[in-house]
Queue: 2 jobs
Job 1
Amino acid sequence: MNMNRRETLKSLLLAPLAAGAAATAGCASGARVSWTELPREYSYGRTEAEQQRDRELFAESWFSEHELVTIAVLCDIILPSDHANGGALDAGLPDFVEFIVKDRENLKLPVRGGIAWLDSYAVNEFGADFVNIDEPQRLAICDRIAWTDVEDPVLRPGIRFFSLMRDLTLTGYYTTEQGLLDLGYQGNVANVWDGVPAEVLARHGLQYEPEWLDKCVDQSRRDIIATWDDEMNLTS
Amino acid sequence: MSSSEQYDAIVVGSGAGGGMATWRLAQAGLRVALVEAGPWYDPADDSQRTQFRYPWESPRRGASTRLRPFGDFNACIGGWELDGEPFTTAPDTDFMWWRARMLGGRTNHWGRISLRFGPLDFKRSDVDGLGDNWPIGYEDVKPYYDQVDKLIGVFGTNEGLPNDPDGYFLPPPKPRLHELYYIRGARKAGVPVYPSRLSILTKRINNDRGICVYCRQCSRACALHADFSSSMVLIYPAVATGRVDVFTNTMVRKVDTGADGRATGVSCIDRGNRRELRINGRSVVLAASACGSARILLNSISARHSSGLGNSSGHVGRYLHDSTGASRAAFLPELMDRDIYNEDGVGGMHVYTPWWLEGANLDFARGYHLEIGGGMGMPSYGFGFAANQYNEFLGQRVGGYGNGLRDDVRRFYGSRLSIACRGESVPQYGNYCELDPSVVDEWGIPVLRFNYRWTDQEINQARHMQDTMEELLEASGGILLGSKPGPERQYGLTQPGEIIHEVGTTRMGDDPATSVTNRYGQLHDADNVFVADAGTFVSQADKNPTWTILSLAWRTSDYIIEQMRQRNL
Ligand SMILES: Cc1cc2nc3c(=O)[nH]c(=O)nc-3n(C[C@H](O)[C@H](O)[C@H](O)COP(=O)(O)OP(=O)(O)OC[C@H]3O[C@@H](n4cnc5c(N)ncnc54)[C@H](O)[C@@H]3O)c2cc1C
Ligand code: SF4
């Protein structure tokens, strides 16, 4: 699966506060938030019961459009797309967050309540929902709730919520192809492990103990069928 | 419905014990019915394969679910809960019971740590005066360990340790970077460390199975059949003899017995169509897991066996015990900003520390070993959580947003070192499973109720584990994470059952008044019924149990073959 922005995009209006208007195309500012749509069909060794559960999860709608837009905007702030390896929206984060929150019951309330807290805070501070204030105002709020060492009882729920959204965004991103690329992950491929590369050992000032190394597998002989003598010594 | 055939042996359960019994009996020419409650399973079948999948192949990115508690890509069909098959616990008990429902049982996703018990492990009562000795000793089991090593394959090294015997090992893989830090730390602390012992093929052992290609995913089951699971290593070859009929999705209710008290077959239910099925046989080998087999025996009530089959002593279910466990982790600043390369290695640790204080003067009786974890694993759900929490140790702020987080994620990737301890508990008559008088599963089979509490012995051991882990993690250059659990949390001691090494429910012994089977796993009360799982263990060493289950199941099977040859069965 190759997810990048050229593929199907999902997009929602950054609707004005006039509630419920989100679906009314072309209204108000007309600003949209769009993201790569994630697949809804998966096949990876599931049992019948698991397939059934996933079908139900995909069919369930839990978030309102307003909530989804807010999630999208937050994910985008946390991991923006102005980067060679793409950002949260390129990696379909809103779809992922929607799915995982439905899947993990204990996330439902914190995310819903967190969004409501954020809106209430934004209304108090700047006169509109989080997605309907302007960008500098949004970032001003994020600056207040993004750091865990801030000890302000008023901000505490916001800090918790922002941490949760940061966790979900990063986990959702680093489990996509772009994320693995960004990380530089090299594994999950067939290979023959033959120890830590020499230059890495050198950099860490470490060495294999020679006696230990003597006991380890000689990878050039791995395909030769094992035989032993009666003293338990490998002879092949 | 009743099977038309009279099988030589009916094997119940297809995990470590059942797979071995099926393979050995079929190989010796017996006609075998293998009855397994779960479906057929082969990780090489693409519709069941979870190995070599990227995180995005799962909509939840590998997160755990109730149906896959160890993650969405884990091979186990089953877990801590099974729909329609509850168990209960007594009010003062927090027992956890992991059950698999699939061909191969829990060996499809187990950790592959394959340790022989040592000579002392069979005679612990002689050492510390607690509990009971096994009726057999290491010398009785050694030939079987030897055969199991050669048949199945296990890597490790011969170190000549007194209570961690040598074996017919394949050569181990080289340690990974975090393991080198651990080795250095252990050397500094004066604690021994050796290559681990895992049933993974680092070298070819025959032309039927593949060789490990180091994907670190043994818990997903190996499509190359390069690690041990009962299904791919024992059951497929057994089926290939043409002498085995496998009844999958078939749940055994009870062992049926005749007027003479001997078994005549098993009563089952077909989980697909909910029809009753009777399978007839000359002998029955129970290997439904220690508690699963105890449950079947307790449910096999007849006029002759009024408290359940094999239970004239009242010992079925008694002496249930699990390994102890505790764990701790540290952040290794020297592993920050790592070079990133493929260091997956095998699906488990490359190094470990066996118990090293035998005979020392301690306030608990028995030992534990250390399992080492860490490295640059494949991201899955949870990766990136608290991404820069270690900033706290570097005098930097935790949190934030924006592209800078990418640097944090990379900086701390693979910088964690963890230790898990696995120890020996002292078996107690008062820790047991029994039938719950008022609860049945969806098949109408009475379920188990657990009664289990740790004693001071295990709690003191956990305290020692915590001290050890702190010392070793710090000696390895680590900054300890989390807080050290104290007495209020029993020093982080895991719940009974949580380590998934539950054993002892049908223990072997020479005295029918205090044991369920004889030294061959044969019921004292019915000579054609055998137990081939960890139920027969008199005591579970600090070694993980499966290599011993396999060896004893082979031994029991040889005994059955011999008894049939002599026409005693
Ligand atoms: C995550 C994990 C990691 C582990 N790691 C290790 C390790 O590293 N080293 C180690 O030694 N051990 C390890 N173990 C433990 C190991 O898996 C077990 O010791 C071993 O599988 C037990 O084998 P068994 O034959 O007794 O039962 P199981 O493997 O549990 O198989 C029992 C089978 O019987 C079937 N069954 C149960 N009841 C019935 C019934 N009434 N009718 C029909 N069929 C029935 C079940 O469906 C199941 O397939 C681990 C376990 C887990 C879960
Ligand atoms: S680590 Fe090796 S044995 Fe384990 S699943 Fe991967 S290839 Fe198979």
Note: The radius of gyration of chain B is 23 Å.
Job 2
Amino acid sequence: MRTNLTTNLRAIWGRAYVRVVGANREPSWLFFEVALPLLASFSFALIYRGMGAPEQYVGFVVVSGAMIAFWQNILWSMAAQFYWEKEMGNLELYLIAPISRMSILMGMAVGGLFMTAIRATLILLIGTWVFGVTYQVSSWLLLTGVFVLTMGAVYGLGMLSSSLFMLFGREAWHTANLFQEPVYFATGFYFPVRALGDLGAMLASAIPLTLGLDAIRQLIFSGTPVNPLFTVKTEMLLLVVATILFNWAALRALRFMENLGKQSGRLTLKGQ
Amino acid sequence: MQWSIETRNLRRTFRDRPVRRLFRRAVGTKVPDKVALESVNVTVKPGELFGLLGPNGAGKTTLIKILSTLLLPSAGEALVDGIDVAKDPDGVRRRVNMVSGGEHSGYGILTVRETIWMFSQFYGVPTKVAKKRADAMIERLNLTESADTKTSKLSTGMRQKMNIIRGFVSDPKILFLDEPTLGLDVGIAREVRAFVSEWIKEHPERTVLLTTHYMAEADSMCDRVAIIDQGRVLACDTPANLKRDLAPDCVYQIEVPLWTETISPLDQMPVVRSVAMEHRGDQGRTHLRVILEEEGGIASVTDRLAKRGARVLSMTRLEPSLEDAFLNLVGHGLSSGNGENGAR
Ligand SMILES: Nc1ncnc2c1ncn2[C@@H]1O[C@H](COP(=O)(O)OP(=O)(O)O)[C@@H](O)[C@H]1O
Ligand SMILES: [Mg+2]
């Protein structure tokens, strides 16, 4: 049991190392990963300014831009990465190793976290400075709690989708691409999700990021009316449920897909 | 005795992709499952270097994938170190590793050393131990100069050496090598073979299952060889026994001055089983590869040649090769053409 744990911890660090080293060796990534997403946030902020929208909307956009970084890290640097690993032939080497598949995924996410944190911080700092956003945090403790819970739920969702990437590869890749923009829209990255209407908001909150973002907005702009979805307490409760649910489902799905792949012969590339 | 590897009536079939299957069914064609392995029974002893020799599509990779827990058997059983691959895959994984020819694993941004270290971590090897093992193998395989090169800059040969080390660094009890010298230069292939042969001798518990479609590789390296074709094991024995039992043992190569007639100088001789003529116009000679029904026939062959005015320039008795055995058994050669990369 103990050796099992150390082996898995070593595996996490081993896989994370690639990302950490990669970020250092190819600093040009920083530009693509930090500068480009900044532009997206800024253009929304400028549009809101131009439309004469309430000033807190600009603040929302900046905070959302920072959170997008974490979401993208999990979806693209972890879940979709399984597709590339399969194409390159790494996936089968991960699968024959005596470790949990979750350790590999965790390694990817942890390795990407370094870059993501830089990116989120820069977006937050530059956005705040350029647009003169002011924050009024009601509770740092709650804010941290909401952030951690959101990450937990999103990570579960990421693992769930990586099980799809593991088996379906290219098809899953296209689907994820297809859903990228609708997800940004539905989670209310760039506006309070209530704007989607009651029903729309309910549906969108199935994506844990929606709830997390809404709660973060409430906590971080506590002075201004924000048109919340639910109370922070309710949202946190829902996030706990989502975290447990998604992680449990992901575990099952990973096991199920691996087994299906071992039966059908789709786990590995045929020609090898 | 506990076998290192044992399969019992192992069978593996593949279905068409669901979409294609639906389509074909709609069109009305029957789609039988593709049989990759048909009732395979092999046993490998601890300490053995066991070869699977067969042409492309024979089912070699399928067998290795089943043994390394990437594929489930469709029927029958496969045991590795006594553990059923279907029932306890994690138990199997702790004991094995695998290297394939032409593998492109790892990440271009890491160096050779880093790549080997990374993969060692998936087996829980402490960093210090991993580095020590890697250094020893890097030196042994003459990879020192490239050890700190990014893997994206490696040549095919260097890359395959790295892959080999990658598979050995976890110090597995049982190692699967799927065409490990595929596409390598003669020199590098030889280094890799020597490395594997030495590794297995270092420890009596170590076992290697190697697939290949290079005859000479199977012949020179393996303790025992299973000849596999179309998912069936046709024979399984030591290379020497296979040659003795399956290859004709009276093979001569005779050189005569260029023989311009289409009809062989040895036609209609009951003692001659077959003759292959190869003309070397540039040397003004013809090589005859003669297989005799019996040892004593060689005298009448030289008599006949003399009568026909084909003076014998040289005559060599050939050792029967594994290729002769394979041809005799399978009825066709290996489709790889002249892909041999200089075993021996
Ligand atoms: N994942 C798969 N899906 C469908 N058919 C497969 C798959 N893997 C192998 N096959 C088929 O099984 C047969 C054996 O293949 P393989 O084991 O790769 O042979 P070898 O390694 O000896 O060249 C081939 O006809 C191949 O097309
Ligand atoms: Mg093969």
Note: Chain B has eleven helices and 15 strands.
